[in-house]
Amino acid sequence: MNRPSSPQDRIVLEGMSFFAYHGVRPEEQSLGQWFTVDLEVSLSTAAASASDAVEDAVNYSELYRTVKGVVEGRRYRLLETLAEAIAQGVLSSFPVQGVRVRVGKPAPPIAGARLKGVWVEIERPAVSGG
After folding, report:
1. Is the separation of the CB atoms in 70 and 15 below 8 Å?
2. In angstroms, rounded to a whole number, what is the distance separating the alpha carbons of residues 87 and 83?
3. Cα 46 from Cα 74, distance rounded (Å)
4. What is the average pLDDT across 106-129?
5. Which domains does the chain have, with CATH numbers?
6. Burial of 71 (0-12, 13-18, 19+ CB in 10 A)
7. pTM, whole model, 2 decimals?
8. pLDDT band at 109; cut points 50, 70, 90
9. What local confidence, expressed as pLDDT, does residue 7 receive?
């Protein structure tokens, strides 16, 4: 039986919250606001599950630190740009086959709006080098 070429395994970090200064409006850039990030990486967990050794796994604490570094390390005007920066940071730092990033503003500054939040979700495959 042939195994699928695309892994079905995932690591998910859901509901990460960071205070940062992203946005188009001057008040977003000066006052800041909370952002929420969900991250899902696709990979094979076969080696880690067989060995039960952290050395064979993608460390989710390191995934968290990578996302935190991107969100808090630089200012972006658009959620789309922030999501792409997170995706590229993860893809360049971890042996994963793909990444899905969902970035949101739980309290977007939209006058008169009543909503839970505004989200951008992207999915990117790893680029094979060769």
Report:
1. no
2. 6
3. 35
4. 86
5. 9-125 (3.30.1130.10)
6. buried
7. 0.89
8. confident
9. 59
Any residues with CB less than 8 A from the CB of 32 and at least 6 apart, and which? 19, 20, 21
**Does the pLDDT of residue 5 top 50, yes or no?**
no
| pLDDT of the residue at 42 | 96
Order of strands, edge to edge, in the sheet holding 33-43?
A: 9-20, 33-43, 98-105, 118-125
* Helix, strand or coil, per DSSP, at residue 115: coil
Strand blocks (E) in the chain: 9-20, 33-43, 98-105, 118-125
Residue 111 has pLDDT above 90, yes or no: no
Asked whether residue 56 carries a pLDDT value surpassing 70, the answer given is yes
Quote the CA–CA distance of 43 and 35 in Å, as a whole number.
26
C-alpha pair distances (Å), 29 with each of 18, 24, 32, 78, 106: 14, 7, 6, 11, 16
Q: Which residues are catalytic?
A: 105
* 128 beta partners: none
